[in-house]
Amino acid sequence: MNPIFNNALVALIAALVPLAAIGWGGVDGWSSQETAILSSLRLSQLEPAPPDPSNRYEGVPAAEALGKRFFFDKRFSSNGEVSCASCHDPEQQFQDGRPVGRGVGTGARRTMPVAGLGHSPFLFWDGRKDSAWSQALGPLEDAAEHGGNRLAYAHAVQANYRRDYEAVFGPLPNLASLPRDAGPLGDDRQRAAWKAMDERSREAVSRVFANMGKAIAAYEKTLQHSESRLDRYLEAVTRRDAAAYGTLNAQEKNGLRIFIGKGQCVTCHNGPLLSDQHFHNTGVPQRNPAKPDLGRRQAITKVIADEFNCLGRFSDAKQDDCGELRFIAQDDHAMEAAFKTPSLRNVAQRAPYMHAGQKATLLEVVEHYRNAPAPAAGHSELKPVAMTDGEVRDLVAFLGTLTGAVVERRK
Question: Which residues form the Cytochrome c domain (predicted)?
Answer without folding.
Answer: 250-403
